[in-house]
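**Protein fold record**
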Amino acid sequence: MGLCGVSRLADMVRAQAARHAGLGLAALMTLFAALGPGDTPARAAADTPPVKLVAFGDSLTAGYRLPSDAAFPAVLERALKARGRAVSIANAGVSGDTTTGGLDRLDWSIPDGTDGVILELGANDMLRGTDPAVTRKALDAMIARLKARGIPVLLAGMKAAPNLGPDYVARFDAIYPDLAKSYGLVLYPFFLESILGDRQAHLDDGLHPNAKGVQAIVAGILPTVESFLDRLTPQGR
């Protein structure tokens, strides 16, 4: 092939490449035009309105003796965001709270516009030996009030210490599955399941989770929370 032939071939290759490049550029411009001025795909995802949850509980939710960013709601929020979930979780935990105390403050603790509540109460009732009938009644009333407001509930269960006796244990432990079945709730059977018996996951009081323990609790409950979110947002926001 002579020099003229080589030149013509090079021109043809450049023209073909330009046509393909033009098609790619046109497709890219179409994508950004659909997003709107100043948007990018990442920005569009970030602009998704978050699902607003409230974690309503006692010291296990509040983050007893922990920095606020190491408390259960903050750690759970970060874990969900890492999985692509647009969510915000308010910390409505009060150390020492019982189910009766929770009922007293429920209405003003759960603001209008809340999309869902993670209800974690009952540990202090159990530690004080409160009649399980009292605990059941208070939890039932809280769930009923939230249902009346159109706010779904994820019920985080608690279990009684064996030293309270078999009758107490049977009556207390039945509260959470019974209420979940009655109201059709998403249930996480035992909030402390992931750290049970692990001293390295507790503070020196042996009762409350440390930062490592909170992370373990979040890892355990995360699939249940995601199932709860899927009920609230079919698109899996």
